[in-house]
C-alpha cells in the first residue's frame, strides 16, 4: 500500500510540475507577444519618423527648386521687358514716320 501511495504522490507532484511548466510557458509566450507588440510599435514609430524626415527633406528640396525657377523666370521676364523697352522708341519713330508719310487719311 505504501508503494501505491508513493506512486500517487509522485503522479500528483508530476501533475503539479506539468501545470507549473504550462503556466511558465504561457507566461513566456505572453511576454514574447508583449515584447513583439512593443517592438512593432517602436518600428512603426521609427518608420513614420524616417518617412516624415524624407518628406520634409523632399519638401525643402522642392521649395528650393521652385525658388531657383522663380529667380530664373524673373530674370527672363526682366530681359524680355528690357528688350521690349529698347524697341519702344524705335516703334514710336516708325509710327511717327508712317503718320507723317501717309498724312491724315
What does this structure look like?
This protein is mainly alpha-helical and 105 residues long. It has one helix at residues 2-102. It is rod-shaped and about 145 Å long. It starts with a helix and ends with a helix.
Core attributes:
single chain, mainly alpha
Most strands sheet? none
Query: How many H/I helices?
Result: 1
Beta-strand residue fraction:
under 5%
SSE series: H
Mean pLDDT: 93
Overall spatial form:
rod-shaped
Query: Structural class given helices, strands, pairing?
Result: mainly alpha
- Please tally the β strands and state the result: 0
- Radius of gyration using CA atoms only: 44 Å
Entry summary:
The protein has 105 residues and is an all-alpha fold.
Please outline the helices and strands:
Blueprint: H1 2-102
Amino acid at each position: 500500500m505504501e508503494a501505491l501511495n508513493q506512486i500517487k504522490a509522485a503522479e500528483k507532484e508530476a501533475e503539479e510540475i506539468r501545470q507549473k511548466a504550462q503556466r511558465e510557458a504561457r507566461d513566456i509566450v505572453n511576454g514574447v507577444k508583449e515584447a513583439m507588440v512593443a517592438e512593432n510599435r517602436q518600428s512603426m514609430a521609427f518608420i513614420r519618423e524616417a518617412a516624415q524626415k524624407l518628406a520634409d527633406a523632399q519638401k525643402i528640396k522642392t521649395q528650393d527648386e521652385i525658388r531657383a525657377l522663380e529667380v530664373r523666370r524673373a530674370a527672363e521676364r526682366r530681359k524680355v521687358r528690357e528688350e521690349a523697352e529698347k524697341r519702344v522708341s524705335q516703334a514710336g519713330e516708325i509710327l511717327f514716320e508712317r503718320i507723317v508719310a501717309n498724312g491724315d487719311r
